[in-house]
Amino acid sequence: MGRKLFVIILSIFFMLPIFWSITSSFKGIGEIFSYPPTFFPKNPTFEGYIKVLKEHDFLLYLRNTLFVAVVATLLTVPVCLMTGYSLAKGTFRSRKFFNGLFAWTLFITAEVTMVPLFIVIRGLGLVNSIWGMIIPAVYTPTGTFAAVQYMRDIPNELLESAKIDGANEWQIFWRIVVPLSKPLMATLSIFSFTWRWNDFVLPLIVVNKKSLFTLQLALASIQEELGPYDWTAVLAFSNLTVIPTLIIFLLFQRWFMRGIMTGGLKY
Amino acid sequence: MRQLIKTRFVFLLPGLFFMSLFVLVPIASIFFISFYSWNLLSPMRFIGWANFKRMISDKYFWNSLVVTFKLMGLGVPINFFLSLSLALALYREDRFSKIFRAIFYWPCLMPAIAGATMWKWMFSYHTGLFNYILRTLGLSPIYWLEKPLNALFSVVLSGIWGVGFFMMMFITGFQNIPQELIEAARIDGANRWQTFWYVTFPCLKNTNLLVLMVSVAYSLRSFAGIYALTGGGPGYATTNIALYIYRSGLTQFRIGYAYAMSVVYFVLALVVGLIILRLQREE
C-alpha cells in the first residue's frame, strides 16, 4: 500500500508541469497573467494555437523538422546496421580495436565538441543548410551499439551455412542479416526519429536562418522573444511539439521499454 | 579488396567515415586550434599557450566548472535515490508497475526545450503553479529562477524528469538477480528490508555504479535544458562548462579560446566514459 501511495504522489508531481502547461495554453492573454492564477481556464480559448499556426510559422518549422527527422533516419538505419554487423561479426584482426574506438564515441556527444563540430560543419559548407542537421547525425553511437548488441545474438552457424551454400558476403548480409534485423530496424527508426525531432544542439550550431529552423530551435527563440508577453502562444507551441513524441511513445511503448532494457538506448 | 569483403571490414566503412568526420576530426582539431587565436573573420594566428593561460586566470571559466560540479553534486544523488526507490516500487511485472513505469519514463522522451519551457512556466513568480501552491498553503512565494542559488536548485529539480531512464536501468538490474537467492533469504526468515539490504542491494553493486556514472555523464553534458530554462543565468549562476564554451565560441566567436576549454571538457567526458565502459565490461 505504501509503495502505491509513494508512486502515485510522485507521479502527480511529475505530471504537474504537463498539466499546468496544457491548461494554461487554453487561457486567454488576460487570464494567463491574472493574479492569482486560475487553476482551470475560465473561458477556454484556442487563441494561442491559432496564433502559433498563423503568425509563428509553425507549419514551416514542422516541415523542416519532419524532413530532417525522416531523411536522417533513412540514412542512419542502414549505416547502423552495417557498422553493427561489422563490429559484431567481422573477422578482421583489428575488430577489437575498432569496437573500443567506436565505444568511446558514446561519451563524446555534440555538447562536448560543439565548437569544433561547428568548425567542421562550416568547413564542409553545411552551415545554414538543412543537410547540416542531417549528415552529422548519420553516425549515432547509441544506435550503433544497439545494433552491435543485437547482431551478436545472430548465430554464427547461420552465416557459416549460408557461406557453405555458396552465398557471398553481400548475399549473406542482404538475405540473412537484414531480414533477421527487422525488429532492430524498427527500434532504430523509432529512436532515430525521436532523437532528431528532439534535437537542439545540432540545429543550434548549424542554422541561424529562420526559414531553416526546426521546431525546437524555433521554440527556444519564440520563448525568448514572446516569453514576457504571450505565454499562451509559447505554451501552445511547446505543447504542439510534444504531442508527436507522446503519440510515438504510446504506439511503440513496448519497443522503447525493451530498447532501453536490452540495448541501453537513451530517450 | 577481396580481403576487406571477406572479413566484413567493408561494412564498417560508411560508419567509420561519418564517425571520423564528425567525432575524430573535431576531437583531433581541439589539440591544434586551441593554440591559435581565431575569430572566424581574420586568419588564424599561432599564440602558443596563451589560450590556456587565459583560461586559468578566467574566473568565469572556473565558475563554469564549479557550476558543472554543483549541478552534478546535487543532481546525481537525487536521481540515484529517486530512481532506485521507483525501481524498487515498480520492478514487478504487474499492471500497476507497467503503467507507472511508462508514466515515469515518458518525460525522458520529451524534447528538452519543450520540457524546459513547461518547467519555466511552473517556476514563474507570478503565474507559476509552485508559487500558487505556496500561496494557497499560506507560505510566501519564491523567486525560483531569479536568484542564483534558487536557479541552481530549480535546474536540478527540473532534471528529475530524467529519472525514468535510470529507473529502467535499475529494473533491468533487479530482474537479472537470480530469484532463488531472494527466495532462499525469505525461507531463512529475512524480512523485506533485510532481503533488500543483504541480498538485492549487494547483487546490484555493478548496476549501482553504472547508474551513478551514467548519471554523472548525463549531468556533465547538460546543455539544452539549462539553455531554455535559465539561459545560464541569473548572471553566470547556472552557466556550466557546455554553456560557457557555447557562449565564448559561438556567440562571441573567441574560437581558439573555446577550443582550449573544450580540451578540459573533452578530458572530463572521456574519463567518465572510460569508467562506464570498464563497469559495463565487468557486468
UniProtKB/TrEMBL annotation, chain A:
GO terms for cellular component: plasma membrane. Keywords: Cell membrane, Membrane, Transmembrane, Transmembrane helix, Transport. Gene3D superfamilies: MetI-like. InterPro entries: MetI-like, MetI-like_sf. It is found in: Cell membrane. The keyword Transport applies. SUPFAM superfamilies: MetI-like (SSF161098). It comes from the Bacteria. This is Binding-protein-dependent transport systems inner membrane component. It comes from Thermotoga petrophila.
UniProtKB/TrEMBL annotation, chain B:
Keywords: Cell membrane, Membrane, Transmembrane, Transmembrane helix, Transport. GO terms for biological process: transmembrane transport. The keyword Transmembrane applies. GO terms for cellular component: plasma membrane. It is found in: Cell membrane. The chain crosses the membrane at residues 12-36, 71-91, 103-122, 151-174, 195-218, 224-245, 257-277. Its main location: membrane. It is a multi-pass membrane protein. Belongs to the binding-protein-dependent transport system permease family. This is Binding-protein-dependent transport systems inner membrane component. It comes from Thermotoga petrophila.
